[in-house]
Amino acid sequence: MEVINLEQKFGQFTDHWHPHVVADLNDQHVKLAKVQGEFIWHNHAAEDELFLVVKGQLHIEFRTHTATLNPGEMLVVPRGVEHRPHTTQETWILLVEPQATRHTGEVEHALTRHDLPRI
Amino acid sequence: MEVINLEQKFGQFTDHWHPHVVADLNDQHVKLAKVQGEFIWHNHAAEDELFLVVKGQLHIEFRTHTATLNPGEMLVVPRGVEHRPHTTQETWILLVEPQATRHTGEVEHALTRHDLPRI
Known about the structure:
The structure is a homodimer.
Chain A lengths: L3 E2 H5 L9 E6 L2 E11 L10 E7 L2 E4 L4 E4 L3 E5 L6 E15 L21
Antiparallel strand pairs in A: 2-3, 3-8, 4-7, 4-8, 5-6, 5-8
């Protein structure tokens, strides 16, 4: 039952598009990631994904529109919905999603990371 | 796929110890609550509960110690662990927990609220 200080946890890594697990609850992971630039189009067939912006600005492109999230703003991407996150600055995000979720969905890409460090 | 601005959502209610649902994901609810003063001892037999402090300061008393969370800090109370939240100031918290979770657990108390408004 550790008190998790988000700022302190973000200070423990520097790489982009690489989620780090900070907590488990009810078969979900709470993950932190630093993101910058463009990610890839993907979806998660069976998993809803929560994005909460802690710092910076996150754009989530959908096939129909783009959502922009500033610090203190969140959005849930429902299962099956194709999306592509991108940013023009380094952005810190908190994610909540099932433990089974792979961050690039079914897509295998240079950005796909198979390890999931715990911090 | 609404962008949820936490500050704006907290502006929509004033009552204490009354969680409001802002999003669903994977059979979980994301809830916001304003809390002040003392809550009751309770536990959730089958549900882990995430507390993230947005504003103010939250104390979570356990049988062995008390954790103190400031803004930007979070803690997961594992299922079955007795806890009692309390504050000395109005505090804004974000919760993630299964949709089945009752905020006072199995305890029926004057503070128990059976309605779960969506905002």
